[in-house]
Design brief:
The protein has about 90 residues and is an all-alpha fold. About 85% of the residues lie in helices and about 0% in strands. The chain has 2 helices and no strands. Helix 1 crosses helix 2. The longest helix is centred in the C-terminal third of the chain and has 45 residues. The radius of gyration is 21 Å and the shape is elongated.
Length: about 90
């Protein structure tokens, strides 16, 4: 495996770890009763966590798609400007 591939794999792993950590913290704060009245999650907490995780991942995916599209658009504009500059 090349150094670039290893770096990309490491970056992806760090990003996924960060996503999981942020999602866990956010959904925990939102859904889990701070009093810990029960040993296990109650039905309301479980449903809340399921919905929170689904929405968090859906939002993450949507933002990623938008950023990817924006980056692609910007790169095309930069390539066009470079092409115009090189023709002069």
């Amino acid at each position: 495996m090349s150094a670039n591939a290893q770096a990309a794999d490491l970056l992806e792993q760090e990003m996924m770890t960060d996503l999981y950590s942020k999602m866990s913290n956010s959904c925990f704060k939102k859904c889990i009763d701070k009093g810990y009245h029960e040993e296990h999650l109650n039905k309301g907490e479980t449903v809340c966590l399921d919905r929170c995780v689904a929405k968090y991942l859906e939002t993450h995916e949507s933002i990623g798609r938008i950023l990817s599209e924006t980056t692609e658009k910007n790169q095309k504009e930069i390539d066009g400007l470079l092409e115009q500059t090189n023709k002069k």
